[in-house]
Write a structure and sequence with these properties.
The chain is an alpha+beta fold. It is built from 16 helices and 7 strands.
Length: about 325
Amino acid sequence: MRNLSVHVHFVNVTLKHARAQHLDVETLLARCGIFPQLLQLENARVSARQFANLQTATMRAMQDEFLGYSARPVPLGAWSVMCHWLIHTRFLGQVIKRFCHFYVLMEPGFNVRLTTTNHAAVIEITPWANLDERLIYGYELLLFTFYRLLCWMTREMVPIKRMDLPYPMPGHHREYQYMFRGCPLHFDQDKCSITLHRSLLALPVRQDPVSLTEFLRQPMYEIIVQDYDRSSWTARVRELIARNPAATGALADIAGRLGTNGHSLRRRLAEEGYTFIDLKKEVKRDLAIHLLANRKYSVEEIAFKIGFSEASAFIRAFKQWAGMTPCAYRKERR
């Protein structure tokens, strides 16, 4: 799904060390169409395109692909070099082993190690230095890009059995539902690790140098919006809503289109960490942010497109989603 949005937390942490280096953050934001006022709003969001552009621009300005969240700067081009090395593997297990070896060679702030048992493959991530508050986004950035890279290489959603995180549950933890496809999360653990079923190491790599070239044109954007989650109930419901949000009916209507009943669908969504109401809200919120960005439609037209019978109801809802009215959001992006 291309019409996704990103929580303002990730905008702030992307810029954190750029500010510390006294770089021109306001220019970076303006270049990506993000108004500085949004950074002060607790629930504000930006489009996936805006965020991906900001990350790329900030990495270039800092000359650091890890945005200051490692023991030393990661030179520009490191990600591309690693991907060109990984693309010549045949199976997921080889991808992970090479990824781990690359991080050992680079020493970019984290040591990544793969161990296996009879039934599990565990990727353990440990910092070269002692954990402090500034490393939390370092973990998020590494875990998210690593996991989504595995999905891209295999062209499918790689299921995670368990993820252990060595920090308290953050205020934006709901974002992890999408980032890691609803995998079981365990905070305040002694170590950071991703546990997969060992059989997944045999998954074939389904990308090639040609597709890699296209991927590397905008890797962060492709990582954020990739959609290999086609089988989960959450993904199927989200897709039905996104096709025509204005025509999305009650839970029972969606359940019928999926060949089940409302009670069963509600239970299955709950097992994946979602409710039907949450999904409708997220799809409509992200589509609204996307449509407001291109200025092709009026606020009234957007309201009707995403299923509001009155513009005033959409304005109230959007203010809850983004912390400001649609008109203010569009005005501040000029």
